[in-house]
Amino acid sequence: IPQIHKIIGNIPYNISTPIIQRLIACQKFFPYAFLTVQREFAQRLTARPGTKDYGSLTCLVQYYADVQIHFHISPQSFRPVPKITSSFIQLSFREPADHADDETTLFQITQSAFAQRRKTLLNALSSYVSKNILQTILKDLKIDVHQRPDTLALNDYIRLANALTRAKPAQTSCSTQKTNAS
User: Fold this and answer.
1) Backbone phi, psi, residue 65, to 5°
2) Measured between alpha carbons, how far is 112 from 124 in angstroms, rounded to an integer?
3) Three-class SS of residue 77?
4) Bridge-partner residues for 87, per DSSP?
5) 10 Å Cβ neighbour count for 39?
6) Cβ-proximal residues to 153 (8 Å cutoff; 6+ apart), any chain
7) For residues 143 and 154, what is the distance between their CA atoms, to the nearest angstrom?
8) Which of 10, 44, 98, 170 lies in the 20 to 30 Å Cα band around 19?
9) CA separation, residue 117 to residues 49, 154, 160 (Å)
10) What is the predicted pLDDT for the residue at 2?
11) Torsion angle, CA of 160/164/165/169, rounded to 10 degrees?
12) Distance of alpha carbon 96 from alpha carbon 76, whole angstroms
């Protein structure tokens, strides 16, 4: 019987994000992680589109893992008693359900979009790609340019990242031709 390695830990809130990122980077060594985290952090990892907790971290984690909150732990369960409620979560690592052609692009656009979550997609991503190109891509994907970043599902971000990745070679070849012509 093959050994199944698991990660089990109680991680501090102030370094939870880098620890989760490291676990994702090393996921090939273990299929599961069982963690005690601050309840608000657990809610961010399990958030759904359209909620205030949904963000770029949600997209990153849910791209690579299924996240489940098993139960909450009251502050009175600890000594000294903290001012927060904790949650016991499980990360079940897996291959992404929908693959991004370029994962770097996917995570760059989710970070760009959520950095300005109160803006429309068109305005939030205009620093990443020109508004003309973005408008065309969003129209082709049947995504409203006036939507806010927190209303798009992870699958929509993957489709957008794939379309942007496919559009890059055309942009690069045009700029290469201009350089060679000079």
Assistant:
1) -150, 155
2) 7
3) helix
4) 37, 72
5) 16
6) 49
7) 13
8) 98
9) 12, 15, 16
10) 58
11) 160
12) 38
Look at residue 154 and tell me whether its pLDDT is greater than 70.
yes
Q: If residue 124 lies in a helix (H) or strand (E), which one and from where to where?
A: helix 121-124
- Whole-number Cα distances in Å, 159 to 19, 47, 168: 28, 20, 14
DSSP letters, 126-168, are TTTS-HHHHHHHHHHTT--TT--GGGS-HHHHHHHHHHHHHHH
DSSP 8-state secondary structure symbol assigned to residue 118: T
Burial of 149 (0-12, 13-18, 19+ CB in 10 A): buried
Amino acid making up residue 46: T
Measured at the CA of 151, the angle between CA 24 and CA 139, to 5 degrees, comes to 105
pLDDT given at position 3:
59
Distance CA 80, CA 76 (A): 8
Q: Are 14 and 37 in contact (CB under 8 A)?
A: no
- Which residue bears the tokens 């019987």? 1
CB 109 within 8 Å of CB 127:
no
The per-residue pLDDT for 82 is 87
Q: Is the pLDDT of residue 87 over 50?
A: yes
